[in-house]
Amino acid sequence: MSEYIIKGGKKISGEICISGSKNAALPIIAASILNSGKTTLYNVPDIHDTQMMYEILKRLGASVTKKKNKVIIDSSRINCYEIPEDLMRQMRSSVIFVGSLLGKYKKATFSYPGGCDIGTRPIDLHLKVFEKLGINIGKNYGNISCSCDKIIGEKIDLDFPSVGATENAILASCLAEGTTIITNAAREPEIIDLQNFLNKMGAKIKGAGSNQIEIKGVKTLKDVGYNVMPDRIETGTFLCLAAMTNGKITLKNANSNHITPVIDKLEEAGCKIIIQKNEIEIDAPKKLKAVNIKTMPYPGFPTDMQSIVATAMTIAKGTSIIVENIFENRYKYTQELIRMGAKINVEGKTAVIKGVRKLYGANVKATDLRGGASLVLAAACAKGTTKIENIEYILRGYEKFDYKLQQLGVNIIVK
Ligand code: UD1
C-alpha cells in the first residue's frame, strides 16, 4: 500500500485540466460489447477503475489497446459470458457488464459484488430490471446466472432512481425487440453520456437526463468513436481544494452545468466563481462560511461530493449540518478528520460540523475513494505534515492526482 506525504499550508494557484469522467467511462466501456466490433474512446481517465474494466473485457475475449487517454476496444471475439469473481469483488461497478452481455448474448454469469466501504450496496434493483425484461435469473451460492432466448421491450418502473440499474436497463434493451420505457430513471449527466455514445453507435434512445427514458430496440450497432465527458466530481474536488486554501485556480475542460449544487454551496460559503465556456475559475475567501448540505439523486447535491464539501466545512466559520440520504455508511472519513483537529459529530445520516480555526497534520488512512480525496484536501490546508495511508482507494478514481495537486502548488509526494 502506498501513501501520500503532504506538507500543508502552501499557496494554491494556477490551472489544471479536468480528466474524463470515471462514472461515464465505466458504463461506456461496458457498452463496447454491444457492437461486436471496434470502439474508439477518447478522454478516458487512466485510473485503476478503468484498468479493471479493460481486464474484465480481456477475460471475456475482447482486445484493448490503450495510448494515453485513447482506448480502442475490439469486442468481435467475445467468447466468455462470466464476469470473473475476483474482479467483481474488487469493483462493484463491474455489474454494469451484465446489461451489455445480456443485451448482446442473452446470457451472463456473475457473483454478488458483496459489501462495500460506503454501504451495503445491494443489486436488487438491477435484478428486478432483468426480470422485468423477461430474463431468467438463477441464484446458486452467491453466483447468479441470467439467460433468455430473446429480450422484448417492456415498461420498467424503478423503485429508486438508481444510476447503475438505469444504465443496465438501457444496455440490456438497446438490441431488444420493441420499445423499453424506463420511468423513475436516474437523471445523472453520465446517463446522458451513455445515451449519446449508444446513439452514435446506432441505438435509438431518448429521454436521458429526464426521469423517463425510451429505448427503441435496433437490430445491429456499428463501430464508433466517442469523447467521454469531463469528470464532475474531480471538478468539484479541485474547487473545494481552492475553497479550503484561500486559493485562486482555473479548471479547464470542465462543465459547470453538471455541478450546479456544488457551485451554489461554494458561493454561499463565500467563494467567487466565474464560469466561461468549458472553464471554471474560483477565488476563495480567507475564511469560508458554514453551509448545510443534503445529498439527493441528481439534480440534487451529489453524494460523491458529500465528504469533500463537508471537509471544507471543518474550517468554516459557524456550524454546518450535513445529511447523507443516498448511502448509509459514508461518514467513515470523519474519524480521520477528527485526528486532524476537526470537530464533527455523526448520528445516523447526519453530521454536525463545528468549524475550527485550523486543522493539523496527522497520520490518517483513506477509508474510501471520495473520503480519501477529502483527507488530501484537509492535509493541503493543515498546519504541519500529514501522512495518508491506503491511497489505492484514491487512485481508483483520480487521474494523476499528485501531479495535478503539485501543479497547483500542493507540497505532496507519493511513497
Ligand atoms: C453510482 C456512482 C457512484 C455514486 C452513485 C450515486 C458509478 C460507477 N458510480 O453508483 O459514484 O455515488 O451512483 O450517485 O456511476 N441501491 C439499491 N439496490 C440496487 C442498486 C442501488 O438499494 O440494486 C441503492 C444503493 O445502495 C444506494 C442507492 O440505491 O443507496 C443509490 O445507488 P445507485 O444510484 O445504484 O449507485 P451506483 O450506480 O452504484
Structural commentary:
The chain has 415 residues and is of the alpha+beta class. It has two domains: 3-19 and 230-414, UDP-n-acetylglucosamine1-carboxyvinyl-transferase, Chain, CATH 3.65.10; 22-227, UDP-n-acetylglucosamine1-carboxyvinyl-transferase, Chain (Alpha-beta prism), CATH 3.65.10. It has helices at 22-31, 48-60, 85-90, 96-105, 124-132, 163-173, 189-201, 232-244, 260-268, 306-313, 332-339, 369-381, 392-395, 401-407; strands at 4-7, 13-17, 38-42, 63-67, 70-74, 107-111, 136-140, 143-147, 155-157, 179-183, 204-206, 212-216, 224-227, 248-252, 272-276, 279-283, 293-294, 319-323, 343-347, 350-354, 363-365, 385-389, 411-414. The longest helix is centred in the N-terminal third of the chain and has 13 residues, at 48-60. The radius of gyration is 21 Å and the shape is elongated. Uridine-diphosphate-N-acetylglucosamine binds next to α1, α5 and α6.
The whole-number mean of residue pLDDT values reads 96
* Ligands (ions, cofactors included): uridine-diphosphate-N-acetylglucosamine
Oligomer: single chain
Number of helices: 14
Category from helices, strands and their pairing: alpha+beta
Give start-end ranges of low-pLDDT stretches. Answer: none
Strand content: 15-25%
Rg measurement, Å: 21 Å
Number of strands: 23
The CATH class name of the largest domain reads: Alpha Beta
Reported for the largest beta sheet, the result is: 4 strands, mixed
- Which CATH architecture of the largest domain would you pick? Alpha-beta prism
- How many discrete structural domains? 2
What spatial order of strands do you see in the largest sheet? Answer: 21-22-1-23
